[in-house]
Amino acid sequence: MTTTASATGPEGAAFLLTQLGSHAAARFAERVSRTGVSLRQAGLLRWIGGNPGRSQRELAEQFGVRPSRVVVLVDELEQQGLVRRAVPPGDRRTRLVTLTDHGHRTLRAVAAAFRRHEQEVLDPLSPEERATLTGLLERLAAHQGLVR
């Protein structure tokens, strides 16, 4: 049996992934914003929380941005009381970044928002279907160079 495009637009997995991805991203951004941070800030907090005491230079390399841009991003987090910078002994040019207590609380709130989001998006699927979908999406993302 063949499938034809509907009168309302194209059909197919890639189109559905695009629609679902856009919808899911907007809903997740909305949820994360309730924690007081943006999606970009949430990503930075997650990395810093998982890599405490790493340098701003390492942060720039991880996210593929200029070190000067990282300075601005970390400035924002520091102004919100989410991170602190430290200068290691003997290297005045390096800045090591760690989460503050407020940063840890915010990161836990972001993680809770993610869990709620995951549940909402995948609610119609059984645990087995979720596992299958995750595996397939991981393969597709790896093929596109989106995961390391």
TrEMBL record:
Pfam families from the UniProt entry: MarR_2
Record-annotated HTH marR-type domain positions: 1-142
Stored PANTHER family: HTH-TYPE TRANSCRIPTIONAL REPRESSOR YETL, TRANSCRIPTIONAL REGULATOR, MARR FAMILY
Protein's name in the database: MarR family winged helix-turn-helix transcriptional regulator
Source species of the chain: Marinactinospora rubrisoli
